[in-house]
Amino acid sequence: MSLAKGLVIAAPRSGSGKTLVTLGLLAALRRRGVIVAPAKTGPDYIDPAFLTRAALREAVNLDPWSMSPARLKHLASVQATGAELLLVEGVMGLFDAAADGFGSTADLAELLDLPVIFVVDADRQSQSVAPLVAGFANWRVGVRVAGVILNRIASMKHERMLVEALAATGIPCLGAIPRNPALAVPERHLGLVLPGEVTAFETFLDTAAEMVGDYVDLDGLRALAAPLPEATEPAPSLPPLGQRIAIAQDAAFAFLYPHLLDGWRAMGAELSFFSPLANEAPAADSDAVFLPGGYPELHGATLSAADIFKTGLVAARDRNALIYGECGGFMVLGEALVDKAGQSHAMAGLLPVTTRIDRPKRTLGYRRLVHAGALPWPGQLHGHEFHYSSAKQSRLTPLFAATDATGQALPPMGAVIGRVMGSYAHVIDAA
């Protein structure tokens, strides 16, 4: 489908600067007229939003734990169509995976046969960078560390010591980026904030592009890229929730996977979008309503006052439309949401569930999900969970039976009443 080449941007660990470097590369290459397609490894919503802004092309998730090899190759090929380079940001450290040992950035790089550009935070380190890089480069046959980018360099002397040490590895150093406090991105409980919430994001992006453009050998980096593998047609995507699907989309409902929406459109579904924060109702002719995840806990008062939105949900239920909520969407389908300050806000009231985030407890991980309900999806699914809120609910039929990545049984997830349903799980693909 595409003759584009690709690279994977990885690191020894989280916090090394791979998101910053990837953003800078996307923006710097775009400034040079290079068409770059962005992608993110794993189940992430926030990094892809940043990558999309930097590339001016929508980023796609490539999840080697949840998706089949055929799906990954197909998505990578489709994403790269019309681009000169596919740039895939990794997740965590290069070899970090789910609890069962699968799903790492290295797994994806090996499957797609793409070289890895290794971002190393060199702060408080000098010659030890060489054994660090050599260890990662030689850890696994089939994973090629093709180049190194050093981050947070203290001085020219520091850079010289690092580059001289790296020469012994035979892996080229493509650049060394100095420390710059202006390149810190604020965070909150679920990770990075969304790009629209970063003050002067374009200024931040310009600074990243200038730093990467000035200190990284972009021509040398592009020369290391390798062709994408030939794509094979995967099994069909998850079927659409209905023929006419109304999808909530705004700052409170921002977590949508493009591959699902693209798959639904390809199967003939009509998608419409509405904003609960703007007190909009789902389309009156929709036969399915999807409330995706996001940050409803930051907008409790606004959602509580959104009478047109809530009336529209009740009308959708009464005409027997399928109503499905994931994570934040599940919270909004409940009776009440207690915010971080302990204030309770009335929600849609379609499920007898109260959620609260005033006593935060992090829950995260991949999930194997089994259902036998009205969802028009295969009975066995792959997804993930990542939230700090908790749910208290009456005795209800759960939406999913669930295990973690290793197959360890978890408590049943979510709730179903008729054709209204939801859970904390974000579904990615069929198992």
Automatic annotation (TrEMBL):
Pathway: Cofactor biosynthesis; adenosylcobalamin biosynthesis; cob(II)yrinate a,c-diamide from precorrin-2 (aerobic route): step 9/10. The a and c carboxylates of hydrogenobyrinate are activated for nucleophilic attack via formation of a phosphorylated intermediate by ATP. CobB catalyzes first the amidation of the c-carboxylate, and then that of the a-carboxylate. The gene is cobB. It is an enzyme of class 6 (ligase). Transmembrane segments: none annotated. Its EC number is 6.3.5.9. It comes from Devosia neptuniae. Residues 7-190 form the CobQ/CobB/MinD/ParA nucleotide binding domain. This is Hydrogenobyrinate a,c-diamide synthase.
